[in-house]
UniProtKB/TrEMBL annotation:
Top-level division of the source organism's lineage: Bacteria
Protein's recorded name: Heat shock protein HspQ
Residues in Hemimethylated DNA-binding domain copies: 19-118
Coiled-coil regions listed in the entry: none
Organism: Sphingobium scionense
Length: 123
């Protein structure tokens, strides 16, 4: 979706307004695959490579005009970084912390399903 704004005879293209449902430090779960992760960054719209996007089966490709979340993720066997569309995430209600080795470098305390970002990483 594109929005055109008229301004004294000049047209500019403004990106659509999107709203992130989740915040940095939230513990989330993938809706289909069940892996869990903690949010450490948010892109307001898709900001990965076209190659990455095209690698997703066409029937499962998410809309690019929604927030995408960077997660420190775990699946019970491995720890990794995941990039997931908002439509594929739900809040994790397990109240269990995420077991990822990078968490202690970015986050401090864990309480009520959320990690607190360390002060040196806030802007």
């Amino acid at each position: 979706m594109k929005v055109t704004i008229q301004n004294i005879g000049t047209s500019i293209i403004a990106p659509p307004v999107v709203h992130a449902r989740f915040s940095i430090g939230d513990v989330l779960k993938h809706r289909s695959f069940g892996f869990r992760g903690v949010v450490f960054d948010i892109d307001p719209v898709f900001a990965n490579s076209e190659e990455w996007y095209e690698s997703i089966p066409e029937h499962a490709r998410p809309d690019k005009q929604q927030p995408f979340y960077h997660l420190l993720a775990e699946n019970g066997e491995n720890s990794y970084v995941a990039y997931v569309s908002q439509q594929n995430l739900v809040a994790d209600d397990s109240e269990e912390p995420v077991d990822h080795p990078a968490i202690t470098g970015l986050f401090g305390d864990y309480a009520d399903g959320k990690y607190q970002l360390r002060p040196r990483h806030r802007h």
